[in-house]
Amino acid sequence: MKNSLKISITFVIAFWVITIFAQTGEKFENPVLFTDRDYCISGDTLWFKVWLPKTGVNLGNVVRVQLDNKRSNLISEVAVKSLNGWAEGFIHIPDSLSTGQYFVTAYLNALRKSTDLQLESKSLLVYNRFSENISEIEIHESDEIQQNSRIEMVLSTDKEHYSPREEVIVKIDWDKNTVFKKAVIKATLVDPLASEISGNRKFKMESCNPSIPGFSENNGLVLSGKVADISGIPVSNVLVTLSAGNNQAWFDYYFVGESDDFHFFLKDAYGNTDVVFQVISNSKTEYSIQLENNHLRRKDLITGRKFLKPEQVEFINTAVNASYAHRLFNSPGSVQNQFFEIPARFSMPFYGNPTLRIVPDEFIDLPDFREIARELLPGFQYRIKNGEIIFRMINHQQKVMFEEEPMRLINGIPVFKNELFAGLKSTDISYIDLVQNERIFGDLILKGVLEVSLKDKSNFWIAKQPNIFQLNVNFLQPGKKACHFVQQNTNKNHPDMRQVYFWELLDTESVKDFSFILSDRKGTVEISIEGFTEENEFFKVSKTIGVK
């Protein structure tokens, strides 16, 4: 390891010993996916709900939902934490996504190790909002569409035809002896093309990266990657550190062995942030880091070119224009502001409680770190020998100086070049922590710690350093309640272009009638209840009304 960081690695602990359902032989039920629509315009937002059936094996409570194309190329993926067996979230459809058929699939990370994994995917038609006169589309040809089971339930409305913006009252009549587990109520405008190819499709899936462990993700997710040299050849026997969170309060490390992979598990991390990775080795080799996708793939699908009927072309053109009007008069409710939250792993910094914390703003301004060390840091030495800056710290317990340099941190990120501290002025620094004792973190022995927390958290200094990488990472999706189907604008002079009018869980203990307000769009509206019976049989009950 570099001589500027004297950290002794006493031993290396293997990543995880994993025992999951594939080894126990116990049966499991796949996650059940519900989506609010089966077509959308590029730039729209797809909302989903996922039900996790109870199993005898702990498969985790974090659901991954992916959007991919017919060739299993990943478009987008989100991870959502479930609560009481339900997970709810959204996937933003990229503006640039081309017109075509795509698939939405929900799965658990622990399922990836199954040798015979079959999952159901929902078809999603996407129409690019910049396309004109779409007349044909490639459609998956399948006879694997799941059939509905029969259930004694009838949906009724007070009439069959409505005008735009009218209220629709729906009554539910059902056999009280019929028991069903979970169900979702939906009312949405019907796409003539999507209705022809609707239904769940069952595919045999496999992991795109078998080297990523099938870890049961509970309250967090696995972050995996590879280390390579500058020629792209994977390397081993290096140490990878991770720093994340406010003031980089989350610190962890992983020793990359012969598998060439590193894996971190971040618990209760929500949102999106820049994560700092660093590769440490005994050599002066320059490395690169590549985060690995964790999605599932299927074999290439057989597709056929479908020429659209005039009414289908007309509907698509109207939908594209409606999407433009909706964007113009409504705020994008699903767009997330920059947000990241992760709880501290411990009640103190990972390096322990500081012996001293110095706040430079409480003293006179000092021009550089050498002056700061001299005036403000007792028991700390800043020396220049043969043109090299050397730090030494007192061992507070033994009343002697450590023979080795302390662990040095800037914003919680390990630093190996003392020159990076030299130009820091006291006005740049929020606080300085000195840990003047020997500390143990995992199997790392720290001969004292110097932590400098800057007021500027952008970590601009990273750009000039080799083997340190700042990568943007999506963690668990923050909870957000779907309200896109609620009438947002009651002003009659403003267009209401919603395509989804109702989308809620059905209270199976107390089934009640419901109502919703139509938008300005005309066509056929489908009102449906879909879910699973006690025998785990899928059912769907629906009724259509006309809007003229």
Structural description of this entry:
With 548 residues, this protein is mostly beta strands. It folds into two domains: 31-208 and 297-339 and 480-547, no CATH class; 349-462, Ferric Hydroxamate Uptake Protein, Chain A, domain 1, CATH 2.170.130. Helix content is 7%, strand content 44%. Strands 3, 5, 6, 8, 9, 15 and 22 form a seven-stranded mixed β-sheet that branches. Strands 1, 25, 29, 30, 31 and 32 form a six-stranded mixed β-sheet that branches. The protein has a five-stranded mixed β-sheet with strand order 12-37-36-14-34, with no helix packed on it. Strand 29 and strand 30 form a beta hairpin. The chain is elongated, with a radius of gyration of 29 Å. The termini are far apart.
Total domain count = 2
Shape: elongated
What's the gyration radius in Å? 29 Å
Please state the average pLDDT score: 87
Distance between the termini: 74 Å
| Beta strand % | 35-45%
Sketch the major β-sheet.
7 strands, mixed
Number of strands: 37
Stretches where pLDDT falls below 50 for ≥5 residues?
1-27
Which percent bin holds the helix content?
under 10%
| Number of helical elements | 5
Estimated structural class: mainly beta
